[in-house]
Amino acid sequence: MLKPLSNRVVLEVAEKEETTASGFVLPESAKDSPQTGRVVAVGKGVLLPDGSRSEVEVAEGDQVIFEKHAGSEVKYDGNEYLVVKDTDIIAVVE
Fold this sequence. Notes:
Layout: E1 8-13, E2 36-42, E3 63-66, E4 72-76, E5 79-85, E6 89-93
Antiparallel strand pairs: 1-2, 1-5, 2-3, 3-6, 4-5
GO molecular function: ATP binding; metal ion binding; protein folding chaperone; protein-folding chaperone binding; unfolded protein binding
Subcellular location: Cytoplasm
Keywords: Chaperone, Cytoplasm
């Protein structure tokens, strides 16, 4: 499994629907990148000058909303993930 470093978080991005509720198929140019995902791994946090670590505010399994165009796409073991900084995550869906 991927183990993120520092304040990085590995997300499994939710798939965007290809059609509208009324059945229209969306062209590639009309689709935005999805902004929701499930946290699959969390780093230990940023190392602070005093030797402690800042706590990452999300946990494995959380459903989150993140900034558009955030992070780096990674393919690992046949799956696609997004690795983002914890500061790119803007909300946890409860």
